[in-house]
Amino acid sequence: MPMKYVAAALLASSLLSAPALAQSAQQPAGSNATTAQKIKMQQLGTWRTSKLIGLNVYNSNNEKIGDINELINEASGKLDIVVIGVGGFLGIGESNVGLPWNQVKFVMEPRPAGTASTSMTRTTTTGAAVPAETATTTTTTTKNREYPDHAVVNMTKDQLKALPAFKYLSDASSTTTRTSPAPTPIPAPAR
Fold first, then answer.
1. CA distance 69 to 170
2. If you average pLDDT over every residue of the chain, what do you get?
3. Domain map (residue ranges) of the chain
4. CA-CA distance, 92 to 3, in Å (whole number)?
5. Distance CA 1, CA 10 (A)
6. pLDDT > 70 in the chain, percent
7. How far apart are CA 171 and CA 165, in angstroms?
8. CA nearest neighbour of 168 among 68, 96, 78, 93
9. pTM, rounded to two decimals
10. What is the DSSP string of 57-105?
11. Average pLDDT rounded to a whole number, residues 99-113
């Protein structure tokens, strides 16, 4: 007989706890999950930061001086440092330098005329023995653009190269030390 009572108690407790579990599974009206569900599309004026990696960096004379290798953000999400690769050829011999985010100007419009990328294409016409070469200039419209076209810094390539090399925390050769406050000691229990 006692086993019957235990089984009845377990059944009753499971029936009573089911509404409580269902209620806790629902998100409150102002929760982050509800807010995230409302975001369905990128807004005008926002950038896809993944597209900033590899972006060409120019100086004020419109000379290419590097490209963006990394973006470093604070724990709050605020972008803090732009890591620019400068020097080298095809990534060999390139060094990284870091600039504060506010020292890098991002430009949505393509670079001025005469500096746009030009590619050679061959076109043939019926009866022509040798195809003629024509230049095709690629232009990009800034309407609904998801990220900037390029970045500009007010430095020459030599000034950028003269900056100290940027070190990541994970670099084994990093000599940067960060100090943090000592932990608060836990008081000894009273006797």
1. 16
2. 73
3. 49-162
4. 77
5. 15
6. 54
7. 12
8. 96
9. 0.57
10. EE-TTS-EEEEEEEEEE-TTS-EEEEEEEESSBTTBT-EEEEEEGGG-E
11. 90
Q: For residues 8 and 16, give the distance between their C-alpha atoms in angstroms, rounded to a whole number.
A: 12
The two beta strands, 56-58 and 150-152, are parallel
User: 102 and 96 in contact (C-beta within 8 Å)?
Assistant: no
What's the N-to-C CA distance of the chain in angstroms?
Answer: 50
CA distances in angstroms from 42 to 46, 144, 167, listed in the order given: 7, 10, 33
Token pair for 11: 């059944």
List, in sequence order, every residue forming a beta bridge with 152; answer none if it has no partner: 58, 105
Dig out the tokens for 79 from the structure: 């972008």
CATH number belonging to domain 49-162:
2.30.30.240
Question: Token pair for residue 130?
Answer: 């040798």
Q: Enumerate residues 6+ apart whose C-beta is below 8 A from 95.
A: 85, 86, 87, 88, 161, 165
Q: How many other CB atoms are there within 10 angstroms of residue 52's CB atom? A: 18
* Number of neighbouring beta carbons within 10 Å of residue 80: 15
DSSP 104-169: -EEE-SPPPTTSS-EEEEEE--TT-SSPEEEEEE-----TT-SS-SEEE-SS-HHHHHHSPPP--T
Residue-level pLDDT at 124: 38
